[in-house]
Amino acid sequence: MDNLTGLTGIQIAQNIKNSKLSEKDACSFFRERINNNTSLNAFVESYEVPIGADGDSSLKGVPIAIKDNICIKGKKITCASKILSSHTAVYDATVITKLKNAGLKIIGTTNMDEFAFGSSTESSCYGVTKNPWDMQRVPGGSSGGSAAAVAARLVPFALGSDTGGSIRQPASFCGIVGFKPSYGRVSRYGLIAFGSSLDQIGPLTTNFTDCAHLLNIICGFDEHDSTSAPIEKKDFSKSLIEDVTGLRVGMPRQYFAKGIDEEIKNAILGVSRLLKEKGAAIVDIDLPHTEYAVATYYIIGSSEASSNLQRFDGIKYGLRESASGLMDIYKNSRRAGFGDESKRRIFLGTYSLSSGYYDAYYVRALKVRTLIKKDFDDAFKKIDVILTPTSPTAAFKIGEKATDPLSMYLSDIYTISANLAGLPAVSLPCGFTKNNLPIGAQLIAKEFDEETLIRAGYSYQCATDYHKRMPELK
Amino acid sequence: MPDEKQVEYVANLARIGVSGDEAEHLSSQLSKILGYIDKLKELDVDNVEPMRGPSLKNNIFRKDEATDSGVQEDILKNAPSREGNYFKIPKVIE
Amino acid sequence: MQEFDTVIGLEVHVQLNTNSKIFCSCSTKFENPANSNICPVCCGYPGVLPVFNKQALLLAIRVALALNCKINKKIYFERKNYFYPDLPKNYQISQYKMPLGEGGALSLPTEKTIGITRVHLEEDAGKLIHKENYSLVDLNRTGTPLLEIVSNPDITSPQDAFDYLSSLKLILQYIGASECNMEKGSLRCDANISLKNKGASTLGVKVELKNMNTFKGVRDALEYEVTRQSKTLDEGGKIFQETRLWDADRQKTEVMRSKEEAHDYRYFPEPDLLDFFVEEEFIENEKQFVKELPQDRHKRFLSQYKLQALDVDVLISEKFLADYFEEAVKEFNEPKKICNFIIGPFLEQVNAFPDRFQSVKLSAKNFSKIVKYFSNGLLNNLTAKKVLVLCISNNSDIDEIIKNEGLSQVSGEAELSGLVLEAIKESPKAVKEYTEGKSQAIMFLVGAVMKKTKGKANPKVVKELLEKTLKR
After folding, report:
1. Is residue A166 annotated as part of the catalytic site, yes or no?
2. pLDDT at residue C389 in the model
3. What is the DSSP letter of C337?
4. CB-based contact (8 Å) between A373 and chain B?
5. Looking at the domain B4-42, which fold is it?
6. Helix, strand, coil % (nearest 5) of chain C?
7. C55 to chain B, minimum CA–CA distance in Å?
8. Which of C44, C45, C51 sits opposite A226 (nearest CB)?
9. Which of A12, C111, C282, C410 shows the greatest Cβ crowding within 10 Å of its Cβ?
């Protein structure tokens, strides 16, 4: 087998099982692609010898890449931050243990926005990752390295993390499937925390079949994560059914109001038309508090992050700047170790929690979060799944929003609510702009109803070929 | 809106050194962001319960059994400075 | 000279008796070498998450019950944020808005009652070791479960504070919640003290006292402060709200040197731990440990068993002893004799075991048998002790041991008279002294006979036989 780029992960696994392909050759193939495409800057590190164990599953032997904020024992873990640039993980994240037990081969770690703060991968201490569809543009973020690597077929699939859209938005910018499970579906143990009540690990794949099989491997209750849900494990591959008959699809008016590109809007309307043709019912719905989601998210996410990132202090691990006293170790190490965006979030979060501002910002945001959740609860009384754009625009140019943090924050408007409400959501490729940039559609379902997302997404994919298109690499 | 003095107060709480210029820059950026966030004040949330997280009802416990992590040395190896089995830091004045 | 009322509140931290830490499974034995009981979780490694030790909650419920607190059915943890090198995450997981228990009370032996504001769970910090030019961090203690017990400002004298701490310690040890060893750091106490004009309703300025290492130290520091503050106020001076450290060597308090920073702990709910529901079953289970608290049991022992107060103090000081005593008395209704044997030979043995009562396998029933045999003369002082030594850690059959080891006391004249004659023959000097009127000399001869029987003879019978023989 000389070219594996056209194969899905599941197909590669089948070839390995039928001895048409060795695990070693599969790894070498993708390793060579990684080495030939370093200009994308998608990887932080690619491993000479892949990490894996002798486990078994439907994806046994398939290479996978991991976002650089998930711990792999004995390997460098940096969150693309200078403050951790010399840090070695001393334990495996639960998802890594699960991948090992399933026989997958970890071939490297991918670039990201520093500590997952960002929507463009520009805040990485390793420099920006390029969008394989247009090297002048960002791949989205914060899981930009994972998305670019999968889109460019440097690896069949990857894991990312999603706090406010960090899997879905880069998936949409790169033309792949990015899935954020319900809060509590996947253990967060070993994921370096950003916003603890928002973070989830999820797969970035080229298609829904791989997505369902990867979810089967990484989901499940974990005794190391008290916030993981002790609920029954499901076989998501059983939802790979081409049938949306009777599916009630809600389209929130607030998501198509202002600020959305006409091209994006039309692509999403195209999705709704197709689903309707296939037997789904399209319903207009209201999510009235949508316009407050970004503000709510930036308070809650930054508050939690400001506390989570206090552990990076130069005492036990990570960067220590030389200093005469303890206070200077803290202040100098954290000043030198954190990039601008991290500092902004830490400042914003510390301020929101500080005496005199706690009620006005933090508590108020928690209350608005209740209202946003209630919007969804009400909507899901009438519908099964919500269809929205993933992002108001396609991939933007590198540097375009770098000087205006607020405009960057606002680009997360469509993805943030699912994290605030803890709902599963997925971005799937649904078209291209006239500049040949991918467009993503987002589906959101009820808590723990990942199956509906897989069924709807798979059905859409059966009728389209956007997910099969590959960027041409120089 | 946080002025430079408040930025310095927050910088101290967060233990991040900032120069005067940086404080000024951060103050203007944070003011812009918080100006947007003030949008939340439009809403009447008096009778709304705060939502601390997506789900809150697990009652997950650990059994009281002691185990050896086996990674003590790996942890100490990551220390920027150590002496024997200790993490070494500048003199702390109590 | 003005008269002042003293207002004292105490904040006590006790380590709960668990095997493992509150949020990870590292051991809580911190006499182990530095940084040996550490793991990614208690070292605040990136990506780790806390998981709550159920036993810590159960012990905390037990304390809350013992202190008559109202137990909140739903609790959650919050993060207390501050940077310090002994706190690896630079936040402490604690309880703030929703503590486990509130509104309790503790009675002092003086019949005074001190209100308990709250009890809440939190994790302990590590330890710093200060060297000449640098400091070292040991995280063994980090994550040990702590219970903070806050009293109302009901304490009106340093002696009351001392009594409060003593009573609290007795209860916590008795119910098995904590070792409460101040020297070892398993109990720590900070005090708040202010003076107000006698009878006035407005409170004075509060001073926080730290660094007391014994209960006596707490009392001394408070006494020092009462004197210092009343003198200052008398002279028209001002008391400043500050933290002062007790210097036990110099017997005085001094303002903390490091500059007081405004505390802004930015408490917020710990998102890594969800709500915990204190189920009825948990509370019911813990109630068995607090049915009768030490002070009540003390009173009952005095009246029911007619024992000396000092002896009861010993029995009550440890629940195991009190329970063992009562069980033994059920089998052999001689409270005084049981008590003496427990406080004497039994405790001597227990104290020789490193893990004390855990090594005791001898049932109270079998123990009572030894006391019974001792009191009816089958065993003497020495042999009774020997039987105890032989079976305390294995609960062997008492009668069999006595038989196998040939320990039953020899009281028969027939068996002893020959040995008595031997002893007389061998010790002419003692015999001479005795017959010349030095009656004490007979004890030498008793000893000689005891030696010949390897301690098994009944010394009373031997003495009588000797007296009879020498009179002839």
Report:
1. yes
2. 85
3. H
4. yes
5. Histone, subunit A (1.10.20)
6. 40, 20, 40
7. 6
8. C51
9. A12
Per-residue HEC secondary structure of chain A comes to: CCCCCCCCHHHHHHHHHCCCCCHHHHHHHHHHHHHHCHHHCCEEEEEEEEECCCCCCCCCCCEEEEECCECCCCCECCCCCHHHCCCECCCCCHHHHHHHHCCCEEEEEECCCHHHCCCCCCCCCCCCCCECCECCECCCCCCHHHHHHHHCCCCCEEEEEECCCCCHHHHHHHCCEEEECCCCCECCCCECCCCCCCCEEEEEECCHHHHHHHHHHHECCCCCCCCCCCCCCCCHHHHCCCCCCCCEEEEEHHHHCCCCCHHHHHHHHHHHHHHHHCCCEEEEECCCCHHHHHHHHHHHHHHHHHHHHHHCCCCCCCCCCCCCCHHHHHHHHHHHHCCHHHHHHHHHHHHHHCCCCHHHHHHHHHHHHHHHHHHHHHHCCCCCEEEEECCCCCCCECCCCCCCHHHHHHCCCCCHHHHHHCCCEEEEEEEECCCCCEEEEEEEECCCCHHHHHHHHHHHHHCCCHHHCCCCCC
Nearest to B48 among A299, A315, A370 (CB): A370
pLDDT at A461 over 80: yes
Distance CA B39, CA B30 (A): 15
Tokens linked to B40: 């939340």
Instruction: Tell me: ipTM over 0.90.
Output: yes
Point out the least confidently predicted range of A113-122, A189-198, A411-420, C289-298. Answer: C289-298
The shortest CB-CB distance from B54 to any of A314, A365, A422 is to A422
Q: Do A77 and C271 touch (CB under 8 A)?
A: no
Written as six digits, the tokens of C202 are 């407005």
Taking a C-beta distance cutoff of 8 angstroms, is the pair A219, A203 a contact?
no
Q: Which of residues 321-350 of A touch C (CB under 8 A)?
A: 326, 330, 350
Average pLDDT of A167-190? 98
Buried b (16+ CB within 10 A) or exposed e, C444-461: ebbebbbebbebbbbbeb
The one catalytic residue in A46, A57, A58, A67 is A67
A235 touches chain C (CB under 8 A): no
pTM (2 decimals)?
0.90
Distance in Å from the first CA to the final CA of chain A: 23
| pLDDT (average), residues A52-58 | 93
- Residues 6+ away with beta carbon under 8 Å from A404: none
Short-list A19, A41, A26, CA closest to A155: A26
Residue C211 tokens read as 């660094």
Give pairs for C298-306: CB < 8 Å, separation 24+: C305/C329, C305/C335, C305/C336, C305/C339, C306/C335, C306/C336
What mean pLDDT, rounded, does chain A reach? Answer: 96
- Kindly state the helix (H) or strand (E) to which residue C228 belongs, with its residue range: helix C215-234
- Nearest-CA distance from A254 to chain B in Å? 16
Is A67 a residue of the active site?
yes
* Residues of B with Cβ-Cβ distance to C130 under 8 angstroms: 91-92, 94
Q: Which CATH class is domain A9-250+379-468?
A: alpha beta
Chain B: closest CA distance from residue C259 (Å) = 10
Q: Active site includes A237?
A: no
Distance CA C265, CA C284 (A): 35
Residues in chain A with CB shorter than 8 Å from the CB of C266 are 307, 350, 353-355, 358
| Domains of chain B by residue range | 4-42
Please, what are the domains in chain C? 4-282 (no CATH), 292-388 (no CATH), 413-471 (1.10.10.410)
Query: Mind listing the pLDDT tens digit for each residue in C255-299?
Result: 986 545 668 999 999 999 999 999 999 999 999 999 989 988 999
Measured CA to CA, the distance from residue A282 to residue A257 in angstroms comes to 18
> Is C46's CB within 8 Å of A354's CB?
no
